[in-house]
Amino acid sequence: MELQQVQNNLVIPEEQIITKSPNPFIEANTHEVSLSHLQNDCTIPVFSKDNECTLAHHEFIDAVDSCARTVFSGQRILKPELRVSHVIKGRIPEAIGKPVKELTEQDKTIYYERMMFKIEVPSISETINGNDLSLVIGGVRAYNQENLYSKKNYEKFKVFVGFKNMVCTNLCVSSDGMVEELRATSIEELKSKVLELLGTYEMQNHLNALKQLSEHYLTEKQFARFLGKCRMYNYLPKPEKREIPTLMLNDGQINSIAKGYYEDENFSRQQDGSINLWNVFNLLTEANKSSYIDSFLGRSLNAHELIQKLSFSMQNDSPFWYLN
């Protein structure tokens, strides 16, 4: 009998399950599957008013992979690594009325509401604060952000290009390396907009900004004040919030940052209690791994923007609410 593995009450053929990475780029409730599983074993949602197909997850991945190989031709480009969550289950018409316990695998249909992938380009790399980084391109698709009960219209995608910290697989994403809501109605339009993003990404500026983080240190008291203000942020009156840089991490993630300050093997405090901004940034991005797929990239970008504003404040000795 063919071996199978059960995840989230879903039986997936063993050859379609990827061995779990010891440190995946996103955790939450995701699991890793193969591209062929998306292509061959999953149904494709449709817009119910006109029965038009959505752009399938595997088509999205193929489009971005093609663009990456066009822009970075001559570089070593790895196969896409993808993670999925929120399985949507169904059954074929012939299985209508069958009790659940009598359903065979041939009776069942599935697709994943949320999917994230990354494509690594290890031949483009840099070292920051002793950590090796490599270029990554990727994207997010979340069907829960589409109105599938309407007619086919522009579909939403999230696409990014940035760097992966090889020590911890944390993703470093900047504002010019991400489109949080890319809209397209066809594969051709999608490719055109992905190529535009990759062509305008200022890689060296991004790396320079990341390198500067290791030059600035928070004392133990400053870090404690920063964390305390992060905890306070979500409870501020709305008029006050509007005047303060946004924080998208939740309380549980802030607790994880506090724990990492003491215990993280790569990014914890120094002996005198101080910690540089590169390590703080990586504590933020490490905590973000517990986010769901649909909020992951937004929080990644928010962490980058927040730490850059903190860095600017320290360089220019200017007021910053999170340290005041």
From TrEMBL:
It comes from the Bacteria. This is DUF3871 family protein. It comes from Gelatiniphilus marinus. The lineage of its organism: Bacteria, Pseudomonadati, Bacteroidota, Flavobacteriia, Flavobacteriales.
